[in-house]
Amino acid sequence: MLRFPCMKIIRAWVGIVLSLLVVSCGMLNKKTAKEEKPFGETGIPRELRANPEVDAAPGAGGGLAASEISVALANHPSEEDIVWTDPDNMDANIPELQKLLTAPQRDVWQKSEAETKRIAIREGKCVLIWFTDSVRSPVCKILSEELFGKQEFGEWAKEHLVRMIVDQSALMARGEKYDTEVVTQKYVEQMKKRYKALGTPTVIMLSPKGEVLAKYRGFKKGQGEFFWGQIKYSAGVGESEYQTWMSKLEKQGYRRWTDKQNRLVVARLLSYNKGTLVMVEPDGNRFRTDEGKLSEQDRDWIKAEKKKRGIE
Fold it and tell me: Is residue 119 within 8 Å of residue 162, measured between CB atoms?
């Protein structure tokens, strides 16, 4: 006759197994509860919160493809150049649009990459970045004499480009609390590494949305007109791509806004409350403005949107 194990032993083992399962489930539930909203109410990681283009999942609601997301992140401005706010409380600590648009008259050659790209998006212009050594490079001086310093080029560039200079010889003023020379050298090296600018002169052409269109290294005397032709071609390609890109942005809720001084900004409306608008630009820069400061066309648009929603 076969003898079965004592029932007491079986019950003991069953009890141990059940106890372990209960403990494991409890720990899992605690972990799940803790990780349920690891990024706050929005569910968006902080490093992505300020970039509407990568907030959506690839292929969903106008989101970018995985390859496009990597490009968007690579072109995303550094944190120090973005007005970061808490997206769970977007009305807090947001600057006025007028403060962003009433900066002193800008130089012909910009020095801030983030501001340069922001202007390019707003105005739909390509970016020309000139890596130079204005003091020590004779070739850079020739390029300036034959092209960049000429009035004809300047007039054309004003209409079609946002120009930026990264000068190995110059110092960028960053305020009294900074060691200007150290900060500048670090900035120049970062820019050279980012755009793989080996030697001077190197000229990089970017589309209005920040993608590299062309890279020109070196310059030969007597080729000013030819070089200008190459730049014109790249600018034409970038302007064409901008129109396509703007169509995509419009599907995501972006539009061109103008104020009473006819200054332009491309942004998406985030919230509206009693005449106060909170908006975000494609690079994540958030700002607020008053309905009364906008152009008549924009006020009419807001009026039509309010009517659709039954808002008085």
Answer: yes
pLDDT tens digits along 101-141: 654 456 789 988 988 998 998 889 999 999 999 889 999 99
Host domain of residue 156: 106-250
Angle at 173 between CA 170 and CA 178, to 5 degrees: 120
Q: Token digits for 33?
A: 């509860």
- Omega within 30 of 0 (cis) for the link into 201: yes
CATH number of residue 115's parent domain: 3.40.30.10
Arithmetic mean of pLDDT, 258-270: 89
> What tens digit of pLDDT does each residue of 134-186 get?
889 999 999 999 999 999 999 999 999 999 999 988 755 444 454 555 557 88
To the nearest 10°, report the CA torsion of 43, 45, 50, 55: -60
What is the rounded CA–CA span in Å between residue 190 and residue 61? 35
